[in-house]
Amino acid sequence: MKRLSQIAVGKKVIIKSFEKDDIFIKLMEMGCIPGEIIRVEQVAPLGDPISISVAGYNLSLRLNEADQIFVEDSE
């Protein structure tokens, strides 16, 4: 498994789990739940934040938030 912060732009991945429970509720409310397919849309010029497509909309995440999401390839 990789962290979302390590995924290249344009790649689709599946959320598997979260590193810390305190961020889980915040991300779940935004549609980031285990089993959800997400796509990395953009990375800011300095690498933070990143933009992902999840549940039909775009969401910006700080790099430290993306670093707490474990994902695996969707193919």
Automatic annotation (TrEMBL):
Protein name, as recorded: Ferrous iron transport protein A
Domain Ferrous iron transporter FeoA-like: 2-73
InterPro entries: Fe-transptr_FeoA-like, FeoA, FeoA_core_dom, Transcriptional_repressor_C
SMART domains according to UniProt: FeoA
Organism: Panacibacter ginsenosidivorans
Record keywords, A-Z: Iron
Pfam family, one: FeoA
The UniProt record lists the keyword Iron: yes
Source superkingdom: Bacteria
Flavoprotein among keywords: no
A molecular function GO annotation: transition metal ion binding
PANTHER family recorded: FE(2+) TRANSPORT PROTEIN A
